[in-house]
Design a protein that fits this description.
207 residues; alpha/beta; Nuclear Transport Factor 2, Chain: A; 2 domains; 7-stranded mixed sheet; 42% helix
């Protein structure tokens, strides 16, 4: 795992995550960056299949993250987001979709594998795409073929229209170009990502 994608403050938080390892798993950009080491990542997004009580979880967070300050920024049904130490966003979600592959166990947390994260990224770009999503998909698709990822996405999200997924992969007009901090020798330009995705989609689908 590429723990160097985390700064020292975030690495120091890892032992506290151990208290939640049996309940939640890490997914999203940070989980992918830990596996691929392609960019820095700052937020921690945790998921579980079952419902949970956000306020009960909040009280546990207050206990396990002493002496850091905690600020609650979102408290909804099956959703809790907090800021730790005024700099790290930590989010918890109930996420009732099947896992495609086994979780990857690490000392202080379990994390979703690349296939599941790739499926989640394809689902995300339909609603609201960010540059980070496309950067992540660029690197995912250098490890997993697009046909294979589409096949697994259909298993994870049976309601998704595959044609819409492919069109979203090539819709670059409204992409939120948030800053991406690449690791050494891993940077890739936005035009190069677009060219790569056009080539990959063009192999299987003509728009």
């Amino acid at each position: 795992m590429h723990y160097d994608i985390l700064d020292s403050f975030r690495r120091d938080l890892l032992p506290a995550f151990g208290a939640f390892k049996g309940e939640f798993y890490l997914a999203g950009g940070t989980a992918l960056a830990l596996q691929l080491g392609h960019r820095d990542s700052f937020d921690f997004d945790f998921f579980k299949k079952e419902d949970f009580d956000p306020m009960a979880l909040w009280k546990r967070l207050e206990k396990h993250f002493v002496p850091h300050s905690l600020q609650m920024i979102q408290n909804e049904r099956n959703t809790l987001s907090v800021i730790i130490g005024e700099k790290v966003k930590l989010s918890f979600f109930s996420y009732d979709y099947p896992m495609i592959e086994p979780l990857l166990p690490e000392p202080y947390l379990n994390m979703a594998g690349m296939l599941d994260i790739g499926c989640m990224k394809l689902s995300a770009i339909i609603a609201r795409a960010t540059l980070k999503d496309y950067v992540d998909l660029y690197y995912i698709l250098h490890n997993i073929t697009l046909p294979s990822l589409l096949e697994k996405t259909a298993l994870k999200f049976s309601h998704l229209d595959q044609n819409l997924v492919l069109k979203s992969l090539l819709y670059f007009e409204d992409v939120v170009e948030d800053p991406v901090i690449f690791k050494k020798d891993r940077d890739i330009s936005w035009p190069a990502i677009q060219d790569f995705l056009k080539k990959e989609v063009g192999k299987i689908y003509r728009l």
